[in-house]
């Protein structure tokens, strides 16, 4: 398995296609949530993904503070295969990238409520009064601190 970290302009057309396809498969089709996925934030993000057997199997983006949230953030976390540890692996790499590229001491995420236990296992904590609805899905804000 290969771990890849690239800025938007470094992605090939094929890589971008694979990433957007995976995000759409999970967030739009599987979760039945219609929204505009390419939101402009991708242009300034670091894209972190795992490649196995020629396909993107897990992905996330790391965003500098002020672009989306008041802290450096991680978003669009997705795994093609569940229960293989791919989500954990890509999250740990995303945390590393946030620290290395943006000097993050804190990382904030807007997590789908059902995924809170997953994010807690990699060190995130739910923020008080952080509940909100985005694209029809319940979310909570969570924070990672060293």
Describe this structure in words.
It is a single chain. The chain has helices at 13-30, 86-102, 116-121; strands spanning 2-7, 46-52, 55-63, 72-79, 106-112, 125-134, 137-145. With 146 residues, the protein is an alpha+beta fold. Strands 1-2-3-4-5-7-6 form a seven-stranded mixed sheet, with helices on both faces. The radius of gyration is 14 Å and the shape is globular. The two termini are 27 Å apart.
Please tell me the overall pLDDT.
90
Our Rg estimate from Cα atoms comes to 14 Å
Structural class: alpha+beta
Query: How many helical stretches?
Result: 3
Number of beta strands = 7
> Spans of 5+ residues with little confidence (pLDDT < 50)?
none
The backbone outline, from C-alpha atoms, is globular
Brief overview:
By secondary structure, the protein is of the alpha+beta class. It has helices at residues 13-30, 86-102, 116-121; strands spanning 2-7, 46-52, 55-63, 72-79, 106-112, 125-134, 137-145.
Question: Key terms for this structure?
Answer:
single chain; 146 residues; alpha+beta; 7-stranded mixed β-sheet; 28% helix; globular
What is the topological layout?
Blueprint: E1 2-7, H1 13-30, E2 46-52, E3 55-63, E4 72-79, H2 86-102, E5 106-112, H3 116-121, E6 125-134, E7 137-145
Parallel strand pairs: 4-5
Antiparallel strand pairs: 1-2, 2-3, 3-4, 5-7, 6-7
